Amino acid sequence: MMFRRKRNNYLGGYSGARRGGSRIRTIGKILLAVLIVLVIACGAAAWYVLTPYQPTTEAQQAINATEEGITVHNSDNWIEFAAAKPTGDSVIFYPGARVKPEAYSLVAQRLAKNGHSVYIMKMPFNFAFFKPDAAQAVVDSNPNQKFIIGGHSLGGVFASRYAASHVDQISGVFFLASYPDDNGSLGNSGLPVMSITASNDGVLERSKYEAARVLLPATAVYYSIQGGNHAQFGSYGEQKGDKTAQITADEQLEQTTNALLSWMKEIPSSLKKASSK
After folding, report:
1. Could you tell me where the DSSP H helices lie in the chain?
2. pLDDT digit string, tens, across residues 7-50
3. Surface-to-core class of residue 18, CB atoms within 10 Å of its CB (0-12 exposed, 13-18 middle, 19+ buried)
C-alpha cells in the first residue's frame, strides 16, 4: 500500500507538470499572437504615416516656376507665395492629413496673384495635430500684420483652434471641407468665417459638419461646389473613400479661389489700415 501511494503521488506530480507545461505553451502562443498583431498594427500605422499624398506634377511645378508678381520661398517650416504688391492680409494655410504641403501650391499661387501672400505650413509627418501652433512662427515674423487662417480637412480643425486662442492676431478663418471642434469654437470670436464644401465629398463626415455649425458665428458664409469632391480642394490625385468628382480639378480650384477672394474682399484688412495712416 505504501508503494502504491508513492507511485500515485509521483504520477500526480507528473500530471501536474504536464498541465503546467501545457498552460505555459498556451500563454506563449497567446503572447506570440499578440506580438504578431502589434507588429502588423505598427507596420500599418507606419505605412499610413509615412506614405502621404503627393502633389501632382502641376502643383510641384508651381513652386519652381516663375510667375509674374509672385516670389516663392521654400523654407523648413513653410512654403511662401509672396505677392509682389499685397492688397490684403496674408493667408496661413494648414494642409489636410497625410497631404504634402506642395499639393496646395496652385490655390496659393492664385491667391498670391490677387494680392494675398500665402504661407502653406509644413507639419511633422504631414499631420496638423503634431504642430497645432505652427502659425505662430509666421505671426512672430510679421508682428505688424494680421492674418487670415484656414485649412483643408483636418488642417481646418487645427487652424480654427489656433484662431480661437489668437483672435487678436487673426482677421478671418476659412474651412475647406472642414469644421471646428469644441477647442476651436469661433461662435463668440467676432471673426469673419467662410466654410466651403463640395457636393461629391465622400470623406467629410456630414453629420459632424452639420453639428459643428453651432460653433461658428451666425454671420458665417457657406458655399457649396456642385460636383466637386474632397481631394480636389488640393492637387494630389484621388483620395481613399472619396467620391468621383463631376467637375474638373481646375474648375473646383477656380470656384474655391473665387469664393475665397470674394469673401476676403469684405474683411477689413490690417494692411489697408496701416497704409491709410
Report:
1. 2-50, 57-64, 105-113, 135-141, 154-165, 206-211, 249-265, 270-275
2. 555 555 656 556 666 777 777 777 767 766 666 555 555 545 55
3. exposed
pLDDT at 276: 41
pTM for this structure?
0.83
C-alpha cell at 4: 502504491
Alpha-carbon torsion angle 52, 181, 216, 176, nearest 10: 10
pLDDT digits (tens, 9 = 90+) for 132-179: 999 999 999 999 889 999 999 999 999 999 999 999 999 999 999 999
Beta bridge partners of 223: 196
d(CA 235, CA 216): 27
**151 SS3 class:** strand
Q: Which of 265, 275, 270 is nearest to 146 (CA)?
A: 270
From CA 59, how far away is CA 106, in angstroms rounded? 6
Q: Give the span between the Cα atoms of 249 and 260, in whole angstroms.
A: 17
The one-character DSSP state at 190 is: -
Of the candidates 103, 73, 81, 124, the one whose C-alpha atom is nearest the C-alpha of residue 230 is 103
Query: Pick from 261, 223, 244, 228: which is nearest to 114 by CA?
Result: 261
Residues 6+ apart with CB under 8 A from 87: 114, 115, 116, 269, 271
pLDDT confidence of residue 16: 59
Predicted pLDDT at 15: 60
Compute, in degrees rounded to 10, the torsion defined by CA atoms 246, 247, 248, 249: -90
